[in-house]
């Protein structure tokens, strides 16, 4: 369940730590990845609980 999140964070962290010129791109990727992931979680939570609110 958390594999995509963990692998995305690990790749961005490795790029940020190992390749200094790529740090801004790695941080931009990581930030976008987490924000989009949080949005997808919120949407899925809304869809799962929508019938409970009717």
Computed over alpha carbons, the radius of gyration is 15 Å
**Into which percentage range does the β-strand content fall?**
under 5%
Low-confidence stretches: none
The largest pleated sheet is described as: none
The portion of residues assigned to helices is over 70%
How would you explain this protein's 3D organization?
The chain has 54 residues and is mainly alpha-helical. 80% of the residues lie in helices and 0% in strands. The protein has 2 helices and no strands. The chain has helices at residues 3-18, 23-49. Helix 1 (3-18) runs antiparallel to helix 2. The chain is elongated, with a radius of gyration of 15 Å. It starts with a helix and ends in a 5-residue tail after the last helix. The mean pLDDT is 83.
Feature tags:
mainly alpha; 2 helices
Question: What order do the helices and strands come in, and which of them pair?
Answer:
Blueprint: H1 3-18, H2 23-49
Short description:
The chain has helices at residues 3-18, 23-49. It is an all-alpha fold and 54 residues long. The chain starts with a helix and ends in a 5-residue tail after the last helix.
């Amino acid at each position: 369940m958390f594999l995509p999140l963990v692998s995305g964070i690990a790749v961005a962290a490795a790029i940020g730590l190992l390749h200094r010129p790529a740090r801004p791109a790695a941080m931009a990727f990581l930030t976008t990845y987490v924000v989009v992931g949080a949005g997808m979680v919120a949407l899925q939570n809304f869809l799962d609980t929508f019938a409970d609110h009717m």
